[in-house]
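Deliverable D5.2: sample structural annotation.
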Amino acid sequence: SCGNPGAASDAGGLLCSLPQHPHRQQQQFSSLDDKPQFPGASAEFIDKLEFIQPNVISGIPIYRVMDRQGQIINPSEDPHLPKEKVLKLYKSMTLLNTMDRILYESQRQGRISFYMTNYGEEGTHVGSAAALDNTDLVFGQYREAGVLMYRDYPLELFMAQCYGNISDLGKGRQMPVHYGCKERHFVTISSPLATQIPQAVGAAYAAKRANANRVVICYFGEGAASEGDAHAGFNFAATLECPIIFFCRNNGYAISTPTSEQYRGDGIAARGPGYGIMSIRVDGNDVFAVYNATKEARRRAVAENQPFLIEAMTYRIGHHSTSDDSSAYRSVDEVNYWDKQDHPISRLRHYLLSQGWWDEEQEKAWRKQSRKKVMEAFEQAERKPKPNPNLLFSDVYQEMPTQLRKQQESLARHLQTYGEHYPLEHFDK
């Protein structure tokens, strides 16, 4: 007896009231033979206290196809792209480079308010874009103009967006370089870092549910990978088995923060296995390596309904933006090394020359032609007026609510009274 009349009604009392058998031996188990049954991980028991060192696994290798001289290293990895496609890769990269130079200078002259160049990262944009289907949905960060360039987005629309004129698809509401194009399946850029990552996962999950046979690709930098949205996106993509490619441009700097201060682990690709995501690290200055990795990731993401993580190692040769002076936190020698010794455009040019598909005369002619094309679009954009101020109130509600209509009327009265204080001559009537 337990000495408690009510004890038999609970588990403790029930056990206490059972007859004792001193000669019955308890069944013995070896603690190491017993298999863990915890639902949260797949593992074995050990009997020695040991923390896992962060460097227990050697660094993930960097996949490349071409060396810096444009020579194929392993013939079995050569994508054997036709001449026309390789030339499109090259012309897209160089046209982007030309546009960058002109728009950067236009901002310095006060013609546009802001700009971000893509110097040194052209191979990551164009190599990945070439490996996608045209209907695959793109979520960019703010340095993926080359993806749109490869998808034949007109120069006139690039310029219109940066000038915010009446031809801008966004009607002048976004700051420069925040492109978007529904027809080319490129979701409008949003300034806050990493917000596009969980959004892209949601789009990929919807595509999976609809059996759309399409992949979503989401671009971001190594700095954005430190945001909480990156964790949420990776985890949701893995657990929901979404056909998505996470494409990280690891360019060495998050504005002024170098990777040595951004993380202590082995980059971004090393995080993938922890989420259950297939991962690879590639040479982002090798357009063929980027192409091969993205092509295979796309094939498997659609066929197997699972996410993939590509970390493209590259270098941001330009300043972060026109609001940044990178000489304050890195040396000119460092920048010149990457510009002169390992530029993705130079590497692909070496390949074209070695194949006999390009020569110096063609190079000079194309440089002249590309500059002319950009300048024509630039001059056209400058001549166009900005959208009518009344458009500030449209495209939110199907039918404008009373409060918003009152605001619109208030603005109209204000401009009618004080219009001489505003540059209304630059706006569409």
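Annotation notes: The longest strand covers residues 244-250. The chain has two domains: 75-255+262-383, 389-421.
The annotation will be released with the project's public dataset once the embargo ends.
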